[in-house]
Amino acid sequence: MKGKRFFNFIFIISVVLPAFLLSSHGTSRAEEKRVYGLDAVLSISVEKNPSVAIFKANLDASRGALISAGAYPNPEVEFGAARGRSLETGGTGQEYSVSVGQPLEWPGKRIYRKKAARSAVEAVEMGLDDLRLQIDAEVKKAFFRVLTDKKTLGIARDNLRTVKELLKSVRLRVDAGEAPEFELVKAKVAALRAEKDLGRAGNTLFISKASLNALLGNTLPGNFDIKGGFNGARRRYELSDLISYALENHPLMLRAAKETEAKTYSLKQEKASVFPDVTLMGFYDKELDKESFGAGFSLPIPVWNRRRGEIATARAELAMARMEVTRTRVELTKAVTSEYRNYLIAFDQLDVFEKGLLNEAREALRIADISYRHGESGLLDYLDAQRVSRSVLMEYYQSLFELEASLASLERVAGGLP
Predict the structure, then answer these.
(1) Distance (Å, whole) CA 214 – CA 44
(2) Helices 308-352 and 239-249, interaxial angle, to 10°?
(3) What confidence tier does 388 reach under pLDDT thresholds 50, 70, 90?
(4) What is the rounded average pLDDT for all residues in the chain?
(5) Distance of CA 217 to the CA centre of its chain
């Protein structure tokens, strides 16, 4: 019996325990938090965002239209059979005829149709580039929103730790008779408020992470995290440079130009369609008394229909496309100017924090802490100084976010940053 127990003990040590440790290690690795940087989430958004997938399907459809535009017309085959009687001999027999025809398009019509379809595909590709600009801007804003909320959560966590330490200190002072009982009540209220702020900050972070994940097609694991910093440029862009860059490089301008090009080729195609297509034919007829071979052609004569309506429609569509170019220029100029003003406001606001306000708030908190510890000021004064310092720090991170968000919007409407 003792030997059997000893064997079971050895079995547990040598087999079961290592398996348990290995499975526990595997579980901990499976539950390891995945961390993503800005470049990583931007790459995922290009692959997983549902809007991109829909647009790519539309692009594939336009490429199919380009293939159709280059297709040649199919040949036509006619076959006929009948029972015939010879007028000379009176005999009967089988008669039949076969003919083959090949339509030949007017060269100009085919050339312009292909060019119009190719320009239409390029216009859709420009639209895809514009969509990527829009998604990049949204992802950047969501990413920096999460980063800001993480900073806010850290501030709330530090504040709770500080308030709890303060609560212990106040309790000791009250128990020693060095402070009135009301001081302890105020410290407890501050601790409860700090816990409430921490819970609110955690909930806000959860929502902002869910919003970021939604832009990525909800492909990130539930416990994902982000890493990175605020990369807002510390240089002032010039409005004239941004407008010039947008009018030359923005996908919307390029798409409007390609659509105008496509409409120009469509008009030329309609004009070329006035000239009729020729159909070349060859035939073979087998009759009772003879056989015949031959060739010919058919040519529609444009007497009644000279495609005046189609040409007028194509000319009107070209005029609308040209007006769309002008409208796009005006809209982009307006959008860049508006976002540039938001960028300047965010830039100047951040400048105020970094050139003095942050240091002043830290110094005020340091002085309040020293005064409270030496009994020169009350608990309310110290808590008020702590609240002001925390508020300034949170507003500083909010200003960093607003600068990043304004830069993302500016990059979106300008088609990039020069």
Answers:
(1) 11
(2) 150
(3) confident
(4) 84
(5) 11
SS3 256: helix
Amino acid letter for position 231: N
Nearest to 418 by CA among 258, 254, 251, 236: 236
pLDDT at 28: 44
Cβ-in-10-Å burial (0-12, 13-18, 19+) of 12 comes to exposed
Helix 379-414 × helix 107-175 angle, to 10°: 170
For 36, the enclosing helix (H) or strand (E) is: strand 35-36
DSSP line for 126-146: HHHHHHHHHHHHHHHHHHHHH
CB atoms within 10 A of CB 168: 11
Query: Largest alpha-carbon pair distance within the chain?
Result: 144
Range list of β-strands (E), 204-349: 225-226, 278-286, 291-298
In the prediction, which pLDDT does 4 show?
44
Strands 291-298 and 35-36: unpaired
Reading the block at residue 257, the tokens are 């130009």
Q: How far is CA 252 from CA 22, 92, 339, in A?
A: 56, 74, 17
Residue type present at position 177? G
- Cβ atoms 41, 226 nearer than 8 A: yes
Task: Give me the numbers of helices (H) and strands (E) for the chain, helices first please.
Answer: 11, 6
Instruction: Summarize pLDDT for 22-69 with one digit per residue, the tens.
Output: 444 444 444 567 899 999 999 988 888 777 777 888 888 888 888 888
Distance CA 404, CA 13 (A): 57
Higher-pLDDT residue of 149 and 306 is 149
Q: Which residues of 98-118 are buried (b: 16+ CB within 10 A; e: fewer)?
A: ebebeeebeeebbebbbbbbb
